[in-house]
Amino acid sequence: MFTSGRGHTSSLTRQLLERGDSVAATTRCPERLTAALGDGADTSRLLPLAVDLRDEEQVKQAVNKTVEHFGGLDVVVNNAATARASSLWKA
What we know:
Layout: E1 2-3, H1 8-18, E2 23-27, H2 30-37, E3 46-50, H3 56-70, H4 85-90
Parallel strand pairs: 1-2, 2-3
């Protein structure tokens, strides 16, 4: 299970699915994720989960749904990050 959306994370999702892995992907917008994967992607082993990662209860529910759906959870890739433009410019 990992956070997914655009760019590197949707690319990682595609690569994992192509190699035959089952993937639970947390994202703010599941539709955007599936659109980023493209029409040719085999999403039969994808569980997209709409989650606000700032909400601990939603994260717990996502883990529970993943375990229930796939029978377990082996690896977590955490790619959630936020940055404010002002803090970036000061660096």
